[in-house]
Amino acid sequence: MRISRTFAVVAIGALACTVWLGCTGEDATPPSAGSVETLCDELCRKTLATCNTGAKQMFRTTEQCVATCRSFDPGVEGIATGNTIRCRIAEVDKGNCNGAGLLGGDVCGKPCDGFCRAEAVACKAAATRKYDSEGSCVEQCETELVFVASAAQGADQPFTGDNTLNCRAQHLLLSFADPDPHCGHLDPVNSIPCSGPKPGADAGR
Q: How many other CB atoms sit within 10 Å of the CB of residue 150?
């Protein structure tokens, strides 16, 4: 039985389309090697494989990781610095789980940069949003919130009222799937789940 060239091309194209997630519609094309989709797939695959227990756990699920990752700029190939996806990939390759997470471990940009970029995406339409803009979030974050580098920085950590950026970051991760009420928990001054005494100055930012 002979198969026409046109049919063969269509069949191959359809098969290729099933390989890349997010490929939909007749005009869909697979993501390029440096696209956000491809970089987030790499970051989340590596992070969930390496950083998945105890204080090293950065994300609860692949979906949570991908949603967070898409908040960040991809960065420039060959440059593993700044609040970018490429910086986070470089850090997880080194075994630095905090560096691969939402706050960037104080290595991939400043913690408030990662927090506020993700907040602007996750809470943009939330009724309980506490920040007017990404810029105002950064200003309040750096003024009001304490980042504790030695404490956990990811999902499902045993925060018990810690009045820290770390505690709020956990609720920000939950905000991607459930913005209300979790975006309201990011309040820099009056966050019910993160409302205990602030750590002392020696905790460090």
A: 11
- From the list 132, 120, 125, 203, the residue with the least C-alpha distance to 166 is 203
What is the pLDDT at residue 200? 60
- The structure's pTM equals 0.81
Which residues contact residue 104 at a Cβ distance below 8 angstroms, ignoring those fewer than 6 apart?
83, 87, 88, 91, 98, 110, 111, 113, 114
Instruction: Report yes or no: 58 and 82 within 8 Å, Cβ to Cβ.
Output: no
User: Could you give the C-alpha distances from 191 to 13, 77, 112, 176, 196, in angstroms and in order?
Assistant: 51, 38, 17, 18, 9
- Between CA 44 and CA 63 the distance in angstroms is 9
Amino acid 198: pLDDT: 79
- Per-residue pLDDT at 17: 38
